[in-house]
Design goal:
Strand 2 and strand 3 form a beta hairpin. The chain is an alpha+beta fold and about 110 residues long.
């Protein structure tokens, strides 16, 4: 009886839920950052959440991620312009805004 109760108390553990490669890569870009527009000398806040939703200055950008690698995250906005966040050594370093045809250096961590 002891053996049977011991066997019954040892439940099989469910295998861990696999993490999608896209969500694993998202960890490289997740965070709160800042960049400065040198033309206007204005600081902007950039937030990338774990599901790759992107906010700039508190406003969610409508669109979707169309590509992600260890080197770059490419977001296509609802107007058809790309926002490309590049990464080096495991963290974001620049943001390219196709609509403005400008590249901004990311400040880590966000300073506000």
């Amino acid at each position: 009886m002891t053996t049977l109760s011991t066997m019954l108390s040892r439940k099989k553990q469910a295998p861990p839920t696999p993490v999608s490669p896209m969500l694993e890569l998202a960890q490289l870009y997740t965070g709160k950052f800042a960049f400065v527009d040198e033309l206007t000398n204005k600081s902007h806040q950039l937030i990338v959440n774990p599901t790759l939703a992107i906010k700039i200055d508190g406003r969610t950008l409508p669109g979707q991620v169309v590509g992600i690698t260890t080197d770059a995250l490419t977001f296509l906005d609802h107007y058809g312009y790309q926002l490309i966040i590049t990464a080096k050594e495991g963290h974001p370093v620049t943001v390219y805004d196709e609509a403005e045809d400008a590249t901004y250096q990311i400040i880590v961590p966000e300073t506000k």
